[in-house]
Amino acid sequence: MNRQTISCAIVVFNEERNIDECLDTAKWMDEIIVVDAFSTDRTVEICKQFTDRISQRPWNGFGEQKNFAIYQATSDWVFILDADERISPELREEIESILGSNCLNGPVAYSVPRRNFYYGKWVKHAGCYPDRQLRLFRNGVGQLDDEEPHNKFIFEGPRADLTAPLDHFTERTINDHFRKFRNFTTLAAQERARSKQKVYWTDLIIRPLFTFYKYYIPRKGYRDGMHGFLVSGFASMYTFVKYAKLYEKFLPSSDSFQKNPPLK
């Protein structure tokens, strides 16, 4: 029985710090498709060591960029990978078992548990694990929506959950939080503006405080020590900045929602 094929789809922008280790964990796949948003560092040069399937196009959102990468895939299955993620050996083995089974009546999409590493430590609480992400799917069954910055994969058919982890080195230093804040909070505010037309003082005070409480107490961030405290604190700050930008958006002369490239 022949093994089914698989494509890795990844979008990048100035990821020379991450991309080599990332693609090294995906080089076993049948093809690697890279869509680059005109990086100004060595990202494309490094990608060429792993694949010749490299396209460059302007950035117009995570959903549109990733869908473009997905549409380039020629394999039976597609796996979406981010530059700061790594496919663990256990996850590769689990995916290979699916490819080798050749079951045509089984699930068409699978979620994977994601281990989020902050400052070199796997944070197991504060809502950081299992942090399931739908990443593996049959080619052609669906696409990502336009909800930024965290898109959802829309598809029809049965789904299932894998057990082996995808490793996510999300923030290596405290400074990494701030490098992402500008773009991600702007995208989140844009998305929230679709359904909320006014910002109240409770949005700027109560919501951030409740976010910290939710991550630190019910989601047990305290069990990860200082790492859990910092993750909870930055989650609270993210909520505050999102609503502050939403408030600014409603000011008469605001131009705060101009598009920015994805900073990482």
Automatic annotation (TrEMBL):
Q: Which residue numbers delimit the Glycosyltransferase 2-like domain? A: 7-93
Q: Could you tell me the superkingdom of the organism this chain comes from?
A: Bacteria
Xref: Pfam families: Glycos_transf_2 (PF00535)
Similarity remark: Belongs to the glycosyltransferase 2 family. WaaE/KdtX subfamily.
What protein name is recorded for this chain? Glycosyltransferase family 2 protein
Recorded source organism is Candidatus Nitronereus thalassa
